[in-house]
Design a protein that fits this description.
CATH topology of chain B: ABC transporter involved in vitamin B12 uptake, BtuC
Shape of chain A: globular
Strand content of chain A: under 5%
Structural class of chain B: mainly alpha
Number of domains of chain A: 1
Distance between the termini of chain B: 64 Å
Order of helices and strands of chain B: HHHHEHEHHHHHHHHHH
Oligomer: heterodimer
Radius of gyration of chain B: 20 Å
CATH topology of chain A: ABC transporter involved in vitamin B12 uptake, BtuC
Order of helices and strands of chain A: HHHHHHHHHHHHHH
Chain lengths: ~350, ~325
């Protein structure tokens, strides 16, 4: 499976490389220089590399969560809002801890728990609407994303606004004792690396070596037969949503405690939506989620300097990422058609 | 508020709603065939960019509108082909495309940001525009605005009063049965995805050449596609109701300026969010209205029954479920 997926990603990379070069030529940009900027801007120095890791962490966390919902056949598009609500719960907890430096670590720990709870709560609403209300999780999730964005803006411009004037720059920055500390050389808080590693291991174990993982897969691959085995699809769907929301909430927490140190309107940075692409490109394989997320994170960070150096828009990263996923979807389709044809031939 | 002011507000609502109406009807027609084109938030932007650039380079507004419509149709065709012939999850394809087309639009459109370009000017309809109230409200607009109003009637007539419309609904409700009757579900879905895509592209062109002239990041059409998706549901997959939702949304947006005066602490972005809880609520009511016990309970409660009937629109039974012959 992994080898085939990797081979497909390889072919997709070639196709997308040609496509992107075409897009660059059409927009009158020098392709070679653009690729150089992408590379230099992401892996050109240790500082850049640590920036990539800072994007990789939330992407991987969201990706882990999405593996649960994809496994049972749910399209958790609401992951974006779950990241936002995780960040909101984090900020809520940290605000309570302001001005008491001696017990700051306690509040950071509490904020981690709160973010998991917040993300799971938001995902739980979509899950509940799906299982009890008969509302498609895609529409419910999309709607809740915008509601979460509304909540975020309301908090930043209302109750949590900076002293003086509210602005798009977000809430007041937290005192440094409420930041996740990073050693000067490493530049990344070690705790975040620990969290993401633990998340990957836990997801892998849960999905591959526990009953829950097996049941999720059973329902995902055949919802009507699952009933015969005495499985309860709605309970497991809710569970999968809670897992996904929890991981997304955690990503939201780290965006606040390790990256921005305050709540900003774009706190989720589209990482939830991007994680959906990551998991699709990884073909729902846990081993590939981390490397694909790293590649996507590199593209994101590398493209930041495009406007300054080449007067190009930074959305080039999105073009490459989208084209990659589209190309692999096309190849999956092609394979399925061929498979169907062969089966039809054998039947004759 | 004087009467003059009021008619100006309503005229603003009709003009502002034009692209939303176009896209909402396009998406409704597509979804009537059972196919969800989730790409429209991005494809509206890409169409907006392409039509602005096309109009700028050729100096012809018509070329701009045509180019925009073609872009919308092309993106919709990708969704349809991936879903129908390559057997891929239509939501997955639409989702990838909505992110990707937006980024393509920003990237290629970058050199054309914030420059003056051509834009449509109002064409008053002689005599009719002199009517009190109705004149400014309905008869002093740009051509796309007239088209958006006409389209509501055309779409209703097409979907509910013609035989292609009947085939469209048949495929959306029960593709197997339609197939047994000699209708090709694939052809119907492909055609209506492309047709709906033309309208979605036209919506993008209307944004950049009419409603919010020009190109830039942000253009101003961001988020419109998601709102349209919500309105299609709110309208219960009925083109007229979806259009009514578009006008309601446009009205709320125009009134948002006034609301902000009354509630200065509430940011303007919050009004943008309003359609989404409404969408979820509509879906919830729709689902409950299907419930047998809820129906029995409402049997002798006429007011509640009217309420249910208002939300009684049902998704096409095969919506999002690809037709696969056995």
């Amino acid at each position: 499976m992994i080898v085939r997926t990797l081979r497909e990603i390889g072919v997709a990379l070639v196709v997308v490389f040609l496509f992107t070069t075409l897009v660059l030529v059409v927009s009158g940009a020098p392709p070679l220089q653009a690729y150089m900027v992408l590379f230099q801007g992401s892996l050109g120095s240790w500082v850049k590399f640590t920036q990539v890791i800072k994007v990789w962490i939330p992407l991987t966390l969201c990706g882990c969560g999405l593996l649960f919902t994809f496994r049972i056949g749910l399209w958790n598009i609401g992951v974006e809002g779950q990241v936002m609500i995780g960040a909101v719960f984090t900020t809520w907890m940290l605000r309570a801890g302001g001005g008491r430096p001696e017990i700051a670590p306690l509040f950071i720990a509490a904020s981690l728990a709160a973010s998991v709870l917040g993300g799971a709560l938001w995902a739980g609403i979509a899950g509940f609407l799906k299982t009890k209300g008969g509302v498609n999780e895609i529409f419910a999730g999309l709607g809740l994303n915008f509601v979460a964005q509304g909540v975020l803006l309301w908090l930043i411009f209302g109750p949590w606004k900076q002293p003086g004037v509210a602005s798009m720059s977000g809430t007041e920055t937290f005192p440094t004792e409420l930041w996740l500390q990073a050693p000067a050389l490493l530049r990344i808080p070690p705790l975040t690396l620990g969290i993401v590693t633990a998340a990957l291991i836990a997801t892998g174990l849960l999905l591959r070596h526990t009953r829950i993982g097996l049941e999720l897969k059973a329902i995902g691959s055949n919802p009507s037969a699952a009933f015969l085995y005495g499985l309860r699809p709605s309970a497991l769907m809710l569970l999968a949503m809670l897992f996904a929301g929890g991981f997304a909430g955690l990503a939201g927490n780290l965006q606040v405690t390790a990256v921005y140190h305050r709540l900003i309107p774009a706190i989720s940075s589209n990482y939830g939506y991007l994680a959906l692409l990551v998991v699709m490109l990884a073909n729902y394989n846990i081993w590939l989620v981390a490397p694909v997320a790293f590649f996507f994170a590199g593209l994101n960070v590398g493209s930041i300097q495009l406007p300054m150096l080449l007067q190009l828009d930074s959305s080039l990263s999105g073009v490459i990422q989208g084209a990659l996923v589209l190309a692999t979807l096309g190849m999956h389709g092609w394979r399925r058609i061929r498979l169907n044809r062969e089966q039809a031939k054998q039947r004759l | 508020m004087t009467e003059f002011d009021f008619s100006m507000i309503i005229a603003g609502v009709v003009a502002g709603a034009a692209p939303i109406v176009l896209a909402a009807i396009g998406e409704t027609v597509t979804e009537k065939s059972g196919l969800i084109n989730l790409s429209l938030d991005g494809s509206i932007l890409l169409a907006a960019m392409v039509s602005f650039v096309a109009a700028l380079k050729t100096g012809s507004l018509l070329a701009g509108f045509v180019a925009g419509a073609l872009v919308g149709a092309a993106v919709a065709a990708i969704v349809a082909v991936f879903s129908i012939f390559l057997l891929q999850h239509q939501v997955a394809v639409g989702f990838v495309l909505t992110l990707m087309t937006r980024d393509v639009a920003y990237f290629i459109g970058n050199p054309y940001s914030r420059i003056q370009g051509p834009h449509a000017t109002p064409v008053a309809i002689p005599a009719l525009d002199q009517l009190p109230f109705l004149g400014p409200v309905l008869f002093s607009h740009n051509l796309p605005v007239y088209f958006s109003v006409l389209l509501i009637a055309i779409a209703w007539w097409y979907v509910y009063r013609t035989s292609p419309g009947l085939r469209l609904r048949a495929v959306g409700e029960n593709p197997q049965a339609a197939y047994a009757r000699g209708i090709s579900p694939w052809k119907v879905q492909l055609l209506h995805a492309v047709g709906g895509g033309l309208l979605i592209g036209l919506a993008g062109a209307t944004f950049s050449l009419c409603t919010k002239p020009g190109w830039g990041r942000p253009q101003g059409a961001e988020g419109a596609g998601w709102i349209v998706l919500a309105l299609v549901i709110f309208g219960g997959w009925h083109p007229v109701k979806a259009a009514a939702g578009a006008y309601l949304f446009s009205f709320l947006q125009v009134m948002g300026i006034y609301f902000q005066g009354w509630l200065p602490s509430v940011p303007a972005q919050l009004f943008q969010v309003a359609p989404f809880p409404l969408m979820i609520f509509t879906l919830l009511i729709m689902s409950f209205a299907q419930n047998e016990s809820v129906r029995r309970w409402s049997g002798n409660r006429p007011r509640f029954r009217i309420f249910l009937r208002f939300f009684s629109g049902l998704a096409p039974a095969a919506l999002g479920k690809p037709y696969r012959p056995d």
